[in-house]
Sequence to fold (280 residues):
Amino acid sequence: MRFFRKLGLIVTGTLEGKKIVAVPDDFMAPLKTLRQDEKLQAMMSRNTEWISLTHGLVYYYGTLSGSQLVEMVELYTKETVPFREFYQVIEKANTFYKSLQINEHGFSHRRVFDPRQVIQEHEKRKNVDYYPFTKEQLMKAGVPEFVDRNNSYMEMVHFLIKNFKISKDDADMFVEECVHATKIGESPNAVMTYLSRHLEFPNVELVQPLSNKVVHLMNNTREWFLKGHTSSELMVDDRKHLRQLPDKNRKPVGQASSKVGRNEPCPCGSGKKYKKCCGR
Fold:
């Protein structure tokens, strides 16, 4: 209502004691012809796709520069996207949805506290590609108030409902906050501290099972700092690149001979200097 009133397309008021929404007579005829304007309909469809893809991309990646965002939207639409026109569409849409931060750092999700930190974390991981979401996944995530309720998310919701005297809505709210904490780089201890402030533990035996659920949730949450990957996915990828053990006589980590110099190759076979590996 506020959005369309601000544009001057509607007027709100009271008529005969009832609240009403009125459209000026001068607007009625042009509005009725919009459905027959094929060119306008095509533009509206294109703009809607741009907006949904943008919301989906920043939902999973946190912050993207203007050039990155346009490049990704072009990849998914398979069409050239003129930056100036794209920017105007997204900026106007944001006055309605208020889902984005648009500033000198680019385009960010509204709950990103520090866009610069997200950008820095992305730059630290130059060898990690942005997670390859499908267009369907991004369009789904582009819906206002979308939450990625994956299996680990729902497992934790059910765990909270079963073990604490809270409603499903409250459990969902707590888990959503845990997901957000993960996205901004909080530790499991910080998440447990948050939960302990809002949940009444019936017994101390619940602490460890809840902690396990928290870690599982965090390991399977798509993080802004990790370019849309989960910690579990990157750990699996890291394992694929681990060196095989040279032979059965390889010395355990931390048990290298005292004769090894700090600048000599580490006897564990990592290829690093001893001082930067087992000699730390």
Q: What stands out?
A: Strands lie at 11-15, 18-22, 63-64, 100-103, 106-109. The chain has three domains: 2-27, 47-141, 151-235.
